[in-house]
Design goal:
Elements lengths: L1 H7 L4 H18 L1 H17 L6 H20 L1 H6 L1 E3 L2 H9 L4 E4 L8 H6 L5 E5 L5 H11 L4 E5 L2 H12 L3 E4 L10 E6 L2 E6 L1 H8 L4 E8 L6 E8 L7 H16 L23 H4 L1
Parallel strand pairs: 1-9, 2-5, 2-8, 3-4, 3-5
Antiparallel strand pairs: 6-7, 8-9
């Protein structure tokens, strides 16, 4: 499987995105579990906000997201040439404050492009969940490797390294819409339904008034690259962890709604992680 992934990464961006789109479509039609996740999560969001999004196009975009990551990892310089970066002054202003930078990258579009672009400007420590399969984790780590990017696991050691990076005035990155592990989150609404949400981003931002920016990398037409945008969260997070997590989710929702068909609706965002308490409605 590793060799197949490496060979696929040698295809052109256009052909790899087309292949990913096809695989996403096939998964949608032949996997009832994936199909229902997309439809259910999308329907849930549309009970909170009025927006149009086609489940089939979402499935195709999800497949494209995974496939184009292979191209990004194998063509680090070429992918930069195909990336348009908007609102960079927002990032410069945040870094100039000298308190570090908290970078939040939801599962939207080509989120793998974001640390690649940021690493061209400054050092970043990024916290992530290692893949369960050792071979896949090796492929991912090799693809993401960059002298300016330091990836740390989502555990207590990783959190300490992130905190130290902020103390040095450096940037750190977190996937804010990923379900956290046991004890690391609270149940708050995400698109109108309770989702176990990480408290770490708001805690890091609040401790030393670290500037916080949500980044998105939306896909242009097939083969033409991406557009990266930076949206700063100007309002300080509440000191109450639950209220802060809810504020964070609302900020993420606003970014997703700008390009909803490129969000990873097939991710099981509302699951209860092992060892975590059930959602309040399930307790009653």
């Amino acid at each position: 499987m590793r060799w197949i992934i490496q060979i696929l990464g040698l295809l052109s961006l256009k052909h790899l995105q087309q292949l990913g789109s096809l695989l996403g479509l096939m998964t949608f039609w032949f996997s009832s579990k994936d199909r229902q996740l997309i439809k259910n999560n999308l329907a849930q969001a549309q009970t909170t906000y009025t927006f149009e999004a086609n489940p089939i196009k979402i499935a195709q975009a999800s497949g494209t997201m995974l496939a184009e990551s292979l191209w990004i990892w194998n063509h680090p310089q070429d992918c930069l040439k195909l990336t348009e970066v908007l609102d960079w002054q927002v990032v410069d202003q945040a870094m100039a404050e000298g308190k570090g930078l908290l970078m939040l990258t939801p599962h939207l579009g080509a989120f793998e492009m974001i640390p690649r672009v940021l690493a061209e400007h400054f050092c970043a420590t990024i916290i992530y969940k290692p893949a369960k399969q050792a071979w896949l984790n090796q492929v991912i780590e090799k693809g993401r490797s960059h002298p300016q990017m330091h990836f740390v696991p989502a555990n207590i050691q990783g959190v300490r390294q992130v905190a130290r990076a902020l103390q040095r005035g450096q940037a750190v990155g977190i996937l804010p819409d990923q379900v956290p592990g046991d004890g690391d989150g609270v149940w708050v609404p995400f698109f109108g339904k309770l989702a176990y949400t990480a408290v770490l981003p708001a805690k890091l931002a609040t401790k030393n008034q670290v500037p916080t920016i949500i980044f998105s990398a939306t896909r242009k037409k097939i083969g033409l690259g991406w557009t990266i945008r930076a949206t700063r969260i100007n309002q300080p997070f509440d000191t109450d962890p639950s209220i802060a997590a809810e504020e964070l989710n609302r900020a993420i929702e606003e970014v997703i709604l700008k390009c909803p068909e490129q969000y990873l609706w097939g991710y099981n965002r509302y699951k209860q992680p092992a060892g975590a308490p059930p959602a309040p409605s399930a307790q009653s």
